[in-house]
């Protein structure tokens, strides 16, 4: 008996994982991809299309051991943070290994989808090389990314229309060569804004980085030179966060970041606390600020023909303005159908719209984890859905928590904590590691899962080679050393003080 027919929209990192999951479940997936290749946002193209895209030098902010599918780790010799070309190489290997490409129809854009009156199936209209074709599917998986069209809020910048220089959105930026000798303002201090300011400062006459509210700056290299993810994204830290008040966690983390460089002195200190808004990854930013290559400025009040006037009254001559002001999330093929998805994009577990008669529509990867997207989107499936009222109650509870913990900002509406969300979904599908049980038959493995980084294969394969895989690409020079290497994992060493403090807290409680 043939399996149910499933349409997968988009062949990016979420779409590839969705195709494979469908095949594992005995379903028949057909993936529609609007471009001529896989990779989605991670595929670099020389030309721009007016949609979300990456620049030539873009590098992942998440550790390679976490930026993988659960049953296909990246090669151990890959660097810990991957350039976009390496991510594409990994995705091609993954697609080839599981023979996914034959299920993808390239240059096929989904124009519309409409549920039949009896909710038995969905009609989809697809445009392929100028021709429209109609298909019928039993279910739909939308994997078209959280980032679609650019946000270019020109109405917030008086005078931009009379500005005689060039202005673009960051999605149009590719490489720095053509900006040689220019005076440039980068508006916005998200990850893209920081990256572009740093890169352009090597060729520009001067780069100004304009920020309205400031930002907390993370760096990939953490204590003892280890990747940030290995220390922060662990089950131990997640449990610790539940015992410590939020203001103490904020204080600890902010002191940690200020110890590297004082955010106030560098003009970056935000009014918000660290955990209330997405931080920015900018390893080299303080080095470029201290050398004067990048100057931090307040928000732009208005533009003249040749200059920008900032909120503090200062004025600077400018040749180019780059708006790193983010992206919208839209699904035009849904035709703004409020019965499918409301204005707040309410979804149960960020996957299922709660008001559907039957759960035949799922959104995969339409979220913003504080961590890697690949493993979170790969886990996004549920064995059984609660009632509509139960789903709405869960949505309202999460929304209330968001309003309490985060700023009222579009960037945070789909934000989830990496380990918490992975554990939440893994519990629903029976894939969460049972630590007490594992400790009884393999204590070493249990310690690794609890204190080590929360890698995707913990939920399926739970291996003990994480430390070696992380260190291998760093050891490109062989050293002769009389002292034998420590057998204690570095994340266990780095957490000794926190473990001691946790036990003190527990003793007071009990």
UniProtKB/TrEMBL annotation:
<dbReference type="InterPro" id="IPR036188">
    <property type="entry name" value="FAD/NAD-bd_sf"/>
</dbReference>
<dbReference type="Pfam" id="PF00743">
    <property type="entry name" value="FMO-like"/>
</dbReference>
<dbReference type="InterPro" id="IPR020946">
    <property type="entry name" value="Flavin_mOase-like"/>
</dbReference>
<keyword id="KW-0472">Membrane</keyword>
<dbReference type="GO" id="GO:0005789">
    <property type="term" value="C:endoplasmic reticulum membrane"/>
</dbReference>
<dbReference type="GO" id="GO:0050660">
    <property type="term" value="F:flavin adenine dinucleotide binding"/>
</dbReference>
<keyword id="KW-0521">NADP</keyword>
<keyword id="KW-1133">Transmembrane helix</keyword>
<dbReference type="InterPro" id="IPR000960">
    <property type="entry name" value="Flavin_mOase"/>
</dbReference>
<dbReference type="GO" id="GO:0050661">
    <property type="term" value="F:NADP binding"/>
</dbReference>
<keyword id="KW-0503">Monooxygenase</keyword>
<keyword id="KW-0560">Oxidoreductase</keyword>
<keyword id="KW-0812">Transmembrane</keyword>
<dbReference type="GO" id="GO:0004499">
    <property type="term" value="F:N,N-dimethylaniline monooxygenase activity"/>
</dbReference>
<comment type="function">
    <text>Broad spectrum monooxygenase that catalyzes the oxygenation of a wide variety of nitrogen- and sulfur-containing compounds including xenobiotics. Catalyzes the S-oxygenation of hypotaurine to produce taurine, an organic osmolyte involved in cell volume regulation as well as a variety of cytoprotective and developmental processes.</text>
</comment>
<comment type="similarity">
    <text>Belongs to the FMO family.</text>
</comment>
<keyword id="KW-0256">Endoplasmic reticulum</keyword>
<keyword id="KW-0285">Flavoprotein</keyword>
<dbReference type="InterPro" id="IPR002253">
    <property type="entry name" value="Flavin_mOase_1"/>
</dbReference>
<keyword id="KW-0274">FAD</keyword>
<dbReference type="GO" id="GO:0034899">
    <property type="term" value="F:trimethylamine monooxygenase activity"/>
</dbReference>
<dbReference type="InterPro" id="IPR050346">
    <property type="entry name" value="FMO-like"/>
</dbReference>
<protein>
    <recommendedName>
        <fullName>Flavin-containing monooxygenase</fullName>
        <ecNumber>1.-.-.-</ecNumber>
    </recommendedName>
</protein>
């Amino acid at each position: 008996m043939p399996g149910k027919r499933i349409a997968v929209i988009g062949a990016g990192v979420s779409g590839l994982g969705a195709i494979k999951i469908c095949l594992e479940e005995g379903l028949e997936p057909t993936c529609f991809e609007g471009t001529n290749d896989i990779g989605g946002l991670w595929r670099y193209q020389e030309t721009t299309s007016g949609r979300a895209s990456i620049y030539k030098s873009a590098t992942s902010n998440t550790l390679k051991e976490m930026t993988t599918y659960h049953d296909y780790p990246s090669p151990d010799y890959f660097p810990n943070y991957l350039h976009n070309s390496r991510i594409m190489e990994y995705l091609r290997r993954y697609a080839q290994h599981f023979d996914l490409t034959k299920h993808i129809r390239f240059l096929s854009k989904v124009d519309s989808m409409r549920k039949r009156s009896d909710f038995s199936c969905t009609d989809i209209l697809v445009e392929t090389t100028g021709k429209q074709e109609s298909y019928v599917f039993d279910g739909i998986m939308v994997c078209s990314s959280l980032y679609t069209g650019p946000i270019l809020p020109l109405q917030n910048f008086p005078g931009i229309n009379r500005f005689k220089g060039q202005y673009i959105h960051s999605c149009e930026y590719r490489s720095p060569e053509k900006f040689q000798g220019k005076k440039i303002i980068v508006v916005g201090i998200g990850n893209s804004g920081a990256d572009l300011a740093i890169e352009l400062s090597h060729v520009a006459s001067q780069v100004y980085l304009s920020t309205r509210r400031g930002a907390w700056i993370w760096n990939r290299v953490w204590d003892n030179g280890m990747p940030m993810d290995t220390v922060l994204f662990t089950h131990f830290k997640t449990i610790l966060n539940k015992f410590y008040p939020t203001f103490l966690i904020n204080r600890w983390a902010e002191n940690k970041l200020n110890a590297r460089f004082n955010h106030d002195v560098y003009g970056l200190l935000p009014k918000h606390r660290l955990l209330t808004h997405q931080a920015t990854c900018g390893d080299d930013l303080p080095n470029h600020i201290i050398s004067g290559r990048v100057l931090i400025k307040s928000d732009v009040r208005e533009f003249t023909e040749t200059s920008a006037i900032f909120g503090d009254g200062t004025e600077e001559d400018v040749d180019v303005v780059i708006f790193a002001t983010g992206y919208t999330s839209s699904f035009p093929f849904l035709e703004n159908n409020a019965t499918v998805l409301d204005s707040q994009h309410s979804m149960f577990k960020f996957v299922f719209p709660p008001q559907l008669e039957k759960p035949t529509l799922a959104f995969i990867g339409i979220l913003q984890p504080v961590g890697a997207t690949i493993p979170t989107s790969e886990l996004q499936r549920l064995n059984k859905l609660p009632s509509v009222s139960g789903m709405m109650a869960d949505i309202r509870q999460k929304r209330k928590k968001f309003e309490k913990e985060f700023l009222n900002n579009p960037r945070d509406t789909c934000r989830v904590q990496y380990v918490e969300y992975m554990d939440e979904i893994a519990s629903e599908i029976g894939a969460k590691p049972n630590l007490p049980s594992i400790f009884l038959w393999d204590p070493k493995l249990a310690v690794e899962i609890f204190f080590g980084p929360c890698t995707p294969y913990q939920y399926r394969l739970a291996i003990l080679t994480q430390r070696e895989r992380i260190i291998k690409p760093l050891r490109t020079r062989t050293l002769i050393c009389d002292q034998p290497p420590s057998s204690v994992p570095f994340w266990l060493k780095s957490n000794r003080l926190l473990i001691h403090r946790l036990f003190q807290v527990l003793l007071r409680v009990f």
